[in-house]
């Protein structure tokens, strides 16, 4: 028996294996959504998407955080017919119709109301412990930003007004416990969170809940928005996904996503800015856009308004050009190179 076989046999941990054979480092499931730029924000790739691990969607109130989570959840349920969604709810702001608007069958959603961090921790760890790798489950917490600690609730019941210093510690413990399960069981977890503005001359948005969330998360989005107007009427919002942390996407990347009040998320929004940067689309006149033949540089007809670029017909010819998808990867994704560069030139002159 080799030393490797001996060590493997003596291990008390069932998932111990030779690294090259480990299922934990096998290629992860990728959940591709219907919105290309959401896939880019998750993976740096138009054809990529959500993988297992913790994704935090943070921002102020009414910034479409739950909607982005349900968009990804719907894609997961669509990809796996036997999949279910475990939905932890502390805000109760998502009625059944909201799920249905994303095409989610509510019979496949287990709704669990929660009141405090400890209650979430005990239930979530218990659920993850009993999930087997291969079970298709996606977890959404809406939201951790609105969760009190158990001590905070007890102080309120006992009419104490002392400051609660335990919440950040409880959240750190929660994510420290669940993070290994998410990788080992191949489970994606989407956590909706709040932000606050730091003090200072140039304040920036900070994700609430302490450093534990930053350490544990695979992806952290901070979502901003701008109003979209037609004349003086507000017709929707332009959201910007600010990539605060990612395993795949360059941090501080900004990914625009449009949302109209009439049609919801604009499927092809955000692509125009990238295509303009790459020269795949040009502005022949103010307010007009056209595709470009990348071999000849010829501007192709027809010229269209921005609204007419938000459809499949405009983007299909561009998507068929594999160079465009590679350009998007280069634009957004983290490059891969050896972490140790070894100089193999061994000739050394005498000194």
CATH superfamily of the domain at 26-222: P-loop containing nucleotide triphosphate hydrolases
Termini distance? 50 Å
The largest sheet, given as strand count, sense and whether it forms a barrel, is:
9 strands, mixed
CATH fold-level name of the domain at 26-222:
Rossmann fold
| Helicity level | 25-40%
Q: Indicate the structural class.
A: alpha/beta
| SSE ordering | HHEHEHEHEHHEEEHEEEEHEEHH
CATH architecture of the domain at 26-222: 3-Layer(aba) Sandwich
Low-confidence stretches: none
Compact summary:
The chain is of the alpha/beta class. The protein has helices spanning 3-10, 36-43, 65-79, 96-101, 117-130, 150-157, 167-184, 211-216, 271-278, 312-319, 322-332; strands spanning 53-58, 84-89, 109-113, 137-142, 188-193, 195-197, 205-207, 219-230, 233-245, 254-260, 264-265, 281-282, 290-291. Helix 5 packs parallel to helix 7.
Keywords:
single chain; 351 residues; alpha/beta; Rossmann fold; nine-stranded mixed sheet; two-stranded antiparallel ribbon; 11 helices; 13 strands
Please render the helix and strand layout as text.
Blueprint: H1 3-10, H2 36-43, E1 53-58, H3 65-79, E2 84-89, H4 96-101, E3 109-113, H5 117-130, E4 137-142, H6 150-157, H7 167-184, E5 188-193, E6 195-197, E7 205-207, H8 211-216, E8 219-230, E9 233-245, E10 254-260, E11 264-265, H9 271-278, E12 281-282, E13 290-291, H10 312-319, H11 322-332
Parallel strand pairs: 1-5, 1-8, 2-3, 2-4, 4-5
Antiparallel strand pairs: 6-7, 8-9, 9-10, 10-11, 12-13
């Amino acid at each position: 028996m080799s030393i490797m076989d001996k060590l493997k046999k003596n291990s008390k941990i069932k998932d111990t294996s030779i690294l090259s054979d480990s299922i934990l480092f096998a290629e992860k499931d990728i959940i591709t959504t219907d919105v290309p730029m959401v896939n880019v924000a998750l993976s740096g790739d138009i054809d990529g998407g959500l993988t297992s691990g913790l994704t935090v969607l943070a921002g102020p109130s009414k910034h479409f955080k739950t909607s982005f989570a349900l968009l990804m959840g719907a894609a997961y349920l669509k990809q796996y017919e036997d999949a279910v969604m475990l939905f932890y709810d502390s805000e109760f702001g998502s009625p059944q119709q909201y799920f249905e608007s994303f095409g989610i069958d509510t019979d496949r959603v287990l709704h669990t109301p929660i009141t405090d961090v400890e209650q979430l921790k005990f239930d979530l760890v218990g659920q993850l412990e009993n999930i087997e790798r291969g079970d298709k489950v996606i977890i959404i917490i809406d939201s951790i930003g609105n969760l009190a600690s158990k001590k905070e609730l007890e102080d309120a019941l006992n009419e104490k007004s002392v400051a609660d210093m335990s919440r950040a510690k409880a959240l750190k413990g929660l994510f420290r416990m669940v993070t290994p399960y998410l990788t080992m069981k191949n489970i994606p977890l989407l956590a909706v969170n709040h932000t606050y503005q730091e003090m200072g001359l140039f304040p920036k948005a900070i994700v609430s809940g302490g450093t534990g969330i930053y350490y544990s998360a695979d992806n952290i989005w901070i979502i901003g928005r701008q109003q979209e107007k037609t004349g003086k009427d507000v017709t929707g919002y332009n959201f910007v996904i600010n990539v605060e942390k990612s395993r795949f996407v360059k941090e501080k990347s900004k990914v625009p996503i449009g949302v109209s009040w009439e049609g919801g998320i604009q499927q092809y929004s955000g692509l125009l800015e990238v295509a303009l940067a790459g020269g795949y689309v040009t502005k022949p006149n103010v307010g007009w856009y056209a595709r470009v033949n990348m071999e000849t540089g010829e501007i192709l007809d027809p010229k269209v308004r921005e609204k007419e670029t938000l459809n499949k017909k405009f983007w299909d010819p561009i998507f068929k050009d594999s160079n465009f998808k590679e350009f998007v990867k280069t634009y957004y994704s983290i490059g891969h190179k050896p972490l140790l560069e070894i100089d193999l030139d061994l000739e050394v002159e005498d000194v």
